Amino acid sequence: MSETERIRSQLQRFNHSVWGFVIYRCTYGDDARWTRFMSILHDRTRTSLEVHHSEDLLASLDWSVQEDPSLNGASINEVRRRFRAWVAESGVPPDLTPRYGFCIHVDAAALESVLSGPQPPQRDRHNVTYVNLVDRQWEPVDPATFDWEGTGLDPATDDPTDEGEEDFEGSRRFDLGWMRLNAGKILPRTYNIMGGSGWSTNYRRPPAVASL
Question: Is the pTM of this model over 0.85?
Answer without folding.
Answer: yes
